[in-house]
């Protein structure tokens, strides 16, 4: 009997989606045995205390669902952590939702708070998830370019993209991919625009402790008048070198937390229960852990900056996060994709093409992003391989 042909099923929502370029680079790096300086994750060990806490939680049989919006001890630890670092008083019963990573925190928030046709202001270059997250929520991104090499914020340009349909601003500081740390003045100016246009300020603060040269992270939720309109997204991933745990959280006022919790519940039910318990240990690590993290990353940043400069890249110095954006113009490649392909296949080092951080790929075609969340040996091995690149203007 003939088999009935199956129609091509695909939601119109994903018609324009492409494979994540960042994750594609990891796949290609594995395939070609390249040193992976593409996807942002550490190749060194997570703190021993938190690994032991996760093992203990499993041994203690914390193996069933936690409360959907987060195990009580973990939400309490999140409250204590924000008190300790930012003198912020949160109600864990009504203002905190634990999610499967900041990735889920962001999409759950957008799905819960936006409607089709709403506009979201995004600073460009931007972390690649914000566009698909907005798309899945039916919202439209309006981009504001940051100006290289300082990635300065042009307030007139910001104001120009706000319209009566603006509902949210997504702001990531310290920033991926630029390493920009938004200043108090810049954050205050963005906050005032959010008030003027009655918008939410959705902040991705996942690199809060990875910050250099004496810069300090300022959560916009702590600015006057912003407690009611900020949605703060964060996770354990970067601060505790556990990107595979997928444990994050969203902080928002109760009227915003309610819909976020509903979406979160139906999307994922909850984050891994034993890992939330280990999160209690993580968030309670003593202060030197956090200062040491920043110091270690600053050393790695400086090492990779030196390597890239020596190789002929023109790196821009990041003030935070763990990436270095480089201008590749001097090498004479057709574009960033050709450069990254050559780097993976012939040099043996993977980076992320700059175009993946821009709405118009042409705007990032002279850039590549290298991640320095790697052991010294890994960075040195990348240095040896980069010598094969043969310097500018091959
Ligand atoms: N945030 C990391 C990066 O930019 C990891 C991205 C991902 O694969 N989720 O590389």
What is the topological layout?
Layout: H1 21-32, E1 35-36, H2 48-59, H3 72-86, E2 96-99, H4 101-113, E3 119-124, H5 130-136, E4 140-145, H6 155-161, E5 166-172, H7 184-196, E6 200-204, E7 230-235, E8 248-251, H8 254-268, H9 273-283, H10 287-311, E9 314-315, E10 323-327, H11 336-347, E11 349-350, E12 352-353, E13 367-371, H12 376-386
Parallel strand pairs: 1-11, 3-4, 3-5, 5-6, 6-7
Antiparallel strand pairs: 2-8, 7-8, 9-10, 10-13, 12-13
Helix pairs in contact: 2-9, 3-9, 4-5, 4-8, 10-12
Glutamine is lined by residues 22-23, 39-40, 127, 176.
Describe the overall structure.
By secondary structure, the chain is α/β, with parallel strands linked by helices. The protein is built from twelve helices and 13 strands. Strand 3 (119-124), helix 5 (130-136) and strand 4 (140-145) form a beta-alpha-beta unit. Helix 2 (48-59) runs antiparallel to helix 9 (273-283) and helix 10 runs parallel beside helix 12 (376-386). The N and C termini lie far apart (61 Å). Bound molecules: glutamine (GLN). Residues 22-23, 39-40, 127, 176 line the site of glutamine.
